[in-house]
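Thread: Modeling a multi-component assembly for a lab meeting

Hi all, long-time lurker, first post. My supervisor asked me to bring a structural picture of a complex we are working on to next week's group meeting, and I have zero experience with this. I have the sequence lines for every component (543 residues in total). Could someone generate the structure of the whole assembly? Inputs are pasted exactly as I received them:
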Amino acid sequence: MKNRAKLLAYPYAVWMAIFIVVPLLLVFVISITEGNVRDLGSLKLSTKSYAKFFDPMYMSIIWRSFYLAFISTAICLVLGYPVAYIIAKEKVSRRNGLLMFFLVPIWMNFLLRTYAWMTLLSKNGIINKFLGIFGIEPLNLMPSTGAVVMGMVYNFLPFMVLPIYTVLTKIDKSVVEAAMDLGAGKVGVFLKVIFPLSIPGVFSGITMVYMPAVSTFVISKLLGGGKELLIGNLIEQQFTVQGDWHFGSALSIILMVIILISMLFMPGNDTEEGGASMW
Amino acid sequence: MVGKFLQKVYLSIIFIFLYAPIVVLVVFSFNDSKSRGRWGGFTLKWYADLLKSSEIRSALYYTILVAALAAIIATIAGTFAAIGIYNMGLFGKKVMLNINYLPVLNPDIVTGIALMLLFVSMKMQLGFITMLISHITFNIPYVILSVMPKLKQMNKHLPEAALDLGATPFYTLRKVIIPEIMPGIITGAMMAFTLSIDDFVISFFTTGSGVSNLSIVIYSMARKGIKPSINALSSIMFVSVILLLILINKRQSKGAESNIEKIR
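Re: Modeling a multi-component assembly
Sure thing. I ran the full set together rather than chain by chain. Output:
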């Protein structure tokens, strides 16, 4: 049985080779060559694309992407941890309802939600109209860096709350009771027992927010008005406007490598569990 | 007491933050004025417009068609692949699962351009087929990741017992293994469908020649100003999703109750 059942994996092994491994190898090959991409035989080795990356202009864009993603992840953690904690403390019957209420917005198209923020934040938008009632001059809320960070926090906050919530609900209640019996105060129990036990959830939340935030090009384009370039926009432009596929590929490889390196510093990330608990 | 009150206030503020844009969208789908800053009175004309606009109709058609096909194919392929991987040796299992994890870990934009480069270098015309293949490719890993834990939870001796009692391998698969891992399969299928219906980045790079899904249409409209009929469409879709979720929730809690009764 075991030997024959194993055969079921082979078709997918072939599929993975063609549609996962080969495409990534292609990105790598194209990043280290120059010439016409549509004719693979004519490509010549070149380090031009990687040399371009050291241009101060591009370096500053890449640095900015990681910086903005870092800021948004930090805000998500600060806003999201209390949410997870408050919901996890509720009675089981109320808990599920609250969690669902929290997750429902994800079900609306992500581009539309971002677009709705444009309606709220723009110069003639609802927030400025509202402020106008009190005689406040219209503010320049968008396009701006702040709007981009807000868009990231808005879109990715649930991915921070979910894994933390899952870990918090799994904490053994008797451990908390034991700490209290031994004389720990509320703050002590949180700092010395609950928070350390929730660290795995925090780490997987951080990865689940940081990764999409660092590679997004939609949020920065819509809420940053084309002035707030991030590495994602840079990659997208190479493929849609500039036509420099070699540089676009090199940027993708750099993005992948930096993400992989940062993952190495994340002990025990459990994206598997966080994703599955959505259901 | 004060603490409880503060917690409620905090949760409410977060919920307002999350729901504000959605309320705006739904309200403006009834707005009788094309500009999105002004209220021009109540109307249902954008809902009527939906039926007329061929651009939106075709986008909706492709969105649902691709999501349904990709989810079905990925669920079947992913379930079989998971069973196969589960029965592999330690080394093979590790290699397969790590490669399977790549599309989950990689940013969407990298997956998107990688697939586009493959299609272009194979001289395939970008369009419906390439988009469908891409969606299947990023869906299968999620199906495998949700089926795998169920396989691990399954009693290993169960399929062996079936085989000892004379069931053919296929019969064992159909009557023992699949029913055991069904919750994982359903979770995987639902995840695949929703990921696919909401996908923008990967579709954006792998489609072409007039085939667009809703996300792509919204993206191209966003900077000129979105037609209010898109607001109408998403309000309908949003309400149907909520209804579906409530139904599933009701069914699940009912199921849980009857299970408890059975145990008693």
